[in-house]
Amino acid sequence: MRTLKACLAAALLALVASAAYAQQQITIVTSFPRDLTDVYKKAFETRNPGVKVEVLNRGTSSGIAYVREAPAASKPDIFWASAPDAFEVLSKEKLLAKVTDLANPAVPKKIGAYPVNDPNGYYLGQALAGYGLMWNTRYLKANKLPDPKEWADLVKPVYHGHVAISSPSRSGTTHLTVETILQGEGWDKGWQQMLTIAGNCAAITERSFGVPDGVNNGQFGIGLVIDFFGLSAKASGFPVEFVYPSVTSIVPANIGLIANAKNADLARKFISFTLSDEGQQLLLDPKISRLPVLPATYARAPKDYPNPFGGRIKARVNFDSELSESRYYVVSSIFDQTITFRHKELAAATKAIHDAAAKLAGKKNLQAETLLAEARELAFSPIVSEAKSKDKEFLALFRETKRDALKTKQMTGLENYWNSTARKNYVRAAELAAQAAAMAK
What's the predicted TM-score (pTM) here? Predict the structure, then answer.
């Protein structure tokens, strides 16, 4: 009997200990690489013995889906990512809890015209991020390519086959890059530029990490990336350079507490730590190389470290996160249907257009020039008009997470139409460009 009682007591103690241990774990859903999360995980666990930080790495879109679909009993605690429009999606769906009281008062209210923290209090800026171009210096020298400075440089024929970008549906940072170009240049010109750049790309990578990794190892010459990919690679000794184009934006990378989190108190403690003097200084780690939101931290930064508060980064775009959030899924879908899934045809059409333009340079042939203009129109015009992109009913079709059979059919029909039309346009554009080239004399 005593043995049975002892066993039951031991089992009860083990159960209590197990429950206590479970309460000492926080789960973070993030799109950030391990080079960043491992540093914060180690620092927080060291300062809080007995606490375990579990990091679930997800692309931004899949991270949103994970938070949305997780059972109530298994909700993660923190969402941490670079995309403010993704946090707008979560907050509008009431999937975040207010964290106003965790804000560090030493952090400025705005970076340029952009609020560092959510005005409604549902997420906080933990770092700052800009978008630009990184390139492999050895690759460009070997291929006799000029250093790019602006997005517009990448439409030039000389860069065909030397560029890489990821898909915005798979990468929140790429979504922000594409959206920055659309906001900076306008819908029509922005898509024309994006389609031409994509036509010059050697690949559309599956994850945002694939772009900097490919540039670092010389697989690609140039990549469109969030700044810390370029800055950290350079700090780590890779033969790369990074530049902020003038048509860029500086926006917060955010952190938020998930509504009904299992371990909200510990999660709040972690969020506060990332915003503290110590937590902000971790961003200067060469493996991380991110821009702190705390201005005082830059006094400890290496020489020539980018400082958005010191006027060294000229960001022309005042990013509109509400506009970006309203068309978040539409932009991603358009990109996938006309670029990701049709990249082979787009790249072929782009090369044909470049080749024809080179053959016609300096020659006066109105018929050939007309054919070439038509080819460019087919290949590089946006599949969706600017007016349509502002249609609330159209946008709602893509924003809704729960669709009936009719709306699902409508959305699928649109995507199939975009895909098939893009293919037809690119094939025809290549044919017209070839005809124009044949007329060169």
Answer: 0.85
Contact 271, 124 (CB under 8 A): yes
Beta-carbon contacts of residue 441 (< 8 Å; ≥ 6 apart): 363, 365
Q: Please, how many CA atoms are within 13 Å of residue 180, restricted to the half-sphere of its CB? A: 29
Task: Report yes or no: 148 and 135 within 8 Å, Cβ to Cβ.
Answer: yes
Eight-state DSSP code of residue 363? -
Locate 317 and state its tokens: 């775009």
Q: Which residues contact 14 (CB under 8 A, 6 or more apart)?
A: none
Query: Which amino acid is present at 250?
Result: I
Residues pairing with 163 in the sheet: 201, 222
Angle at 194 between CA 210 and CA 344, to 5 degrees: 65
Question: pLDDT, tens digit, for every residue of 283-324?
Answer: 999 989 999 999 999 999 988 899 998 767 888 898 888 898
Burial of 7 (0-12, 13-18, 19+ CB in 10 A): exposed
Distance from C-alpha of 193 to C-alpha of 155, rounded to nearest angstrom? 7
Which among 314, 270, 274 is positioned nearest to 290, based on CA atoms?
A: 274
